[in-house]
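Why does this matter for the project? Reviewers at the last site visit asked to see concrete outputs rather than summary tables. In response, this paragraph embeds two records directly. Each consists of the residue sequence and, immediately after it, the corresponding structure tokens. Nothing has been edited or filtered.
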Amino acid sequence: MPSLFPLIVVLIAGVGLAAQPPTNAALARTSGSVVLATLVSFLIGSAILFAVWLAFDRTPPAALRGAPPWAWLGGLYGAAFVTAVAFAAPRLGLATTVTVAIATQVGVALLLDHVGGLGLKTDPVTLPKLVGVALMLAGVVIIRRG
């Protein structure tokens, strides 16, 4: 049986992802700027990660020298996501925003797995996986109309 630790880590991260849009939306509402709120979010996150790196990791930055060009885009994706959900959550509602984001992530994840994109191993799309995505999309509609 695989370790439960990775699952617990992801469950905790999921709590944070659900709390992040309204948290950043509050900063955006207070400041009047979604971009400033995202910047503050990333600055605080970067400071925490820097402290953790200093305390526990210390992998030399030179280790990144061989990374493929697309591997440097994670920060762009993160900034775009955090900005988008901070903007959307107060307008669509948190449940709709998170459900749409998750359904999109799963759909793209299936595609990337299927083609082995971004360094992943190939894992073909199957009918049960497509049914799962369809059920998630139906969930988006049900939650939105709720």
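We now turn to the second protein, recorded in exactly the same manner.
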Amino acid sequence: MEKPALRPAPEPLEANDVAIVTGGTVLWFVGFLVLIPFQGRLSDAGHGLWSWTCLAGAALGLIGIWYCRARRDAIRRARAAAGEPSS
């Protein structure tokens, strides 16, 4: 049986990573703000770490935003140096 001819792989899709990570960071921080008024009840029920988990997610999201911006800028610089059009 003959194998079908393979097509070349398509170019990878570009996503707006900064916007995606920023949206997730905002959601983690909103979760923290929503849970703060219930901290006493959450602690009594054994779920006191939920609000601090949200705060940690927001803090890590800030690091993610910094990383994604640095990556985006490095990709743009590399494309400009190679003479490719930037997107």
